[in-house]
Amino acid sequence: MSPFWVLVFVFVNNGYFLDGLSTQNSRRPDVVKIGSIINLDSVIGKVAKVAMEAAIDDVNSDPVVLGGTKLKLTMLDANYSGFMGIIEALQVMETDTVAIIGPQSSVTAHLISHIANELQVPLLSFAATDPTLSSLQYPFFVRTTQDDWYQMAAIADIVEYYKWREVIAIYTDDDYGRNGISALANQLATKRCRISYKAPMNPQASRSDIMDVMVKVALAESRILIVHTYPTGGIDVVDVAHHLGMMGSGYVWIATNWLSTVLDTDSPLPSGAVENIQGLITLRMYTPDSEMKRNFLSRWKNLTNNLTGNGPFGLNTYGLYAYDTVWILANAVNAFFNHGGNISFSKDSRLSELDGGNLHLDAMSIFDGGQLLLDSILKVKLTGLSGHVSFTTDKSLIRPAYEVINVIGTGIRRIGYWSNNSGLSVVPPEKLYEKPPYRSSSNQQLHSVIWPGQTTETPRGWVFPNNGKQLRIGVPNRVSYREFIAEVPGTDTFKGYCIEVFTAALNLLPYAVPYKLMPFGDRVHNPSCTELVRLITTGVYDAAIGDIAIITNRTRMADFTQPYIKSGLVVVATVRKSNSHAWAFLRPFTWTMWTVTGISFLGVGAVVWILEHRINDQFRGPPRRQILTTLWFSFSTMFYSHRENTVSPLGRMVLIIWLFVVLIIKSNYTASLTSILTVQQLSSPIKGIESLIASNDPIGYQQGSFARNYLSDELGIPESRLVPLNSQEEYAKALEDGPKKGGVAAVVDERAYIELFLSSRCEFSIVGQEFTNNGWGFAFPRESPLAIDMSTAILKLSETGELQRIHDKWLMRSACSLQGANLEVDRIQLKSFSGLFILCGLACLFAFLVYFALLVCQFTKDYSESSDSSARSSQSARIRTFLSFVGQSGQAPNGITGENESTNSSKKSCTAVSSNRSVSFGVGTNK
Hints:
eight-stranded mixed β-sheet, alpha/beta, five-stranded parallel β-sheet
């Protein structure tokens, strides 16, 4: 036989050219078997069955899709059973099936994925939304619908949008429910929110079981309820909640997309069911509008018209994804054949070694082209009923998005969208995906919502739990400063400033808070507020009120309200009256200030003399006279009584600036001296916390206060120097005794206590500045909504002036500070006037340099005119001539001539200067 006929024979029998010339129709069988495992009588399953059958018909009727090959779908009913799902998967895989559409249930998907991994058969699920199925553990599982990870991200954004902080999760306790709620917890954590209570339910829970769960939910304080169940179970949950009165005002119900699936499929619902879901928010997987989608919707009624005795049912989004899944698989099979794929199976050696018995395990084989088909599936790009279909690198569909729906009346209202690109918006996601990803709290937007109870006011999100339990509130049982907190003898009640602030704030809350005040302390020593706050974390107390300073280590254990009083640490010490003495007039200035001021007087006088002595006869004469004149002129400017007039512009400029400096210095000196001599002055060897640290004297602190830890840990003061004091009397005695008699040099305590202490003890005073910035607040457990509401109430008390009225009632006393006694006035430092002195010095330097430059120019001009030959003059003779020129009376340098120039020096010549004339300071020039 010739080679030509051999080639034709091979082509006819195998359908492809040898040597890889073409693989377009390589071994394409007439039929490709695929399977499907769903729950046929479920809300999702009955829709998916019709949608997949329609897709199979559409694919097989189009010869272009698979080149004449037909898809054969074997559809099995898992009947809500994981076990049955496994058995049916094994049965399907016995029949040379290349892929399975499904399973519908996430629980079954977890089980079957292990079989798919072993036999390398891809699973394409349009309904298994459990986020953990996307893990690397299941390489042959492909999700052709939205992942619940994104649905939970949308719910977390809604919770943050309405400024709620805690939610309750009601869910089916299986892989689908647990893993979905775990994803919700993670998403909420990124928003600094949390699930305060989890209410799991048995997947086959009866109404009685659901009732038990919902009673516990009703006793919790959060009113934000997230329901993540299957459609049938979700309807039962809201029905029980309605029966328990949990569908009224104040509640927020957010259902995952199970509710929108029910509404799309079984509408109109019975009137009772519609009443139960009024005001709920639910999500629906977003599928953009398109002509293809509209055409399929118009076919849907015909497809379902004769399927059930109850008439046609609606099309939900899972049906759209089920339809697209068939097309994804059809395109992938076509690509599989185009890349040379061949449908063949090989025995699994591990299964062959087993004695399968009636199970026929040896009948199952490994799909040799499974990996190639999987790769082809993940590379599919098409436009289907659900929009553009394409997969990311982690096998998720691109552009996840949801509609946010509010149930109203007999219908629903879309209040916005959520997309992974920009969060909540009222703009359709496809428009937002055209822009770069951008998220901020300011651009999140939803339309208004009608909440349960037919209200448009956004619920607060929590109420005080109606379980009959009283709040156990710890109160420090103080033995001193009882104006703040004091237990009423013979009763279990308390009184004081802190108690009245607490009750006033509590009265502003829009709900009742049953509570019981419980004393904390031994009634002998002031208790530690840090230990009181710690007991909140252990559950001993539900809250703590009183004089509790808000400090770092306490905020790590509990949440605090807005501070209702400021109270930082201060130093109080013994002060004594400062007596006047003969040299009291020197006290306003430091010695440095006095020295620099005196030098400045002399310096300015010298500069004015230099600028004036050539043209002003008042600054000329014998050396002794000139020195006395300069000294007199310098110090007489202090009183603006100088007799000498300045005639040069430079001299006047310097004098004006100096007189301004003198004015400022005199004003401050006068004010300081007046204060020293007229106001009673108090002084103390302790100037503040710095001087206290530098000494080795003992320091007192209030027992139980955080001041002890602050002094030792933050400031490094040895604990041996710290002396605990328990009462105001102990404060006074320790300060009066002083370090030499076993007392303390100073006491460090919070300002609120010290102000009360000083109100009746004028011999002590606060020294230095407040060196911490704290406030007092009420402590609650972490994430407690009551802390937020109490903070709002405290702010209202402050705005209305009620907080100040309570303060004045309990803490207002006749303080010693009102008697005119002040701590010693600080002496005026040089740094306070350094700018003025620098300004004056620069002015003097500038004037001197200008004067000297003009003088040199004038001398050079006159010298060149009077000398026959400058080259023959020696350098020393030239210098002597210049000094003589400077010292003589005559015309001022050009540019600095004063108004008296004509009378003082216009008739004097300076051109005939002898080369050997001695230097003169004006002696004999004014005969």
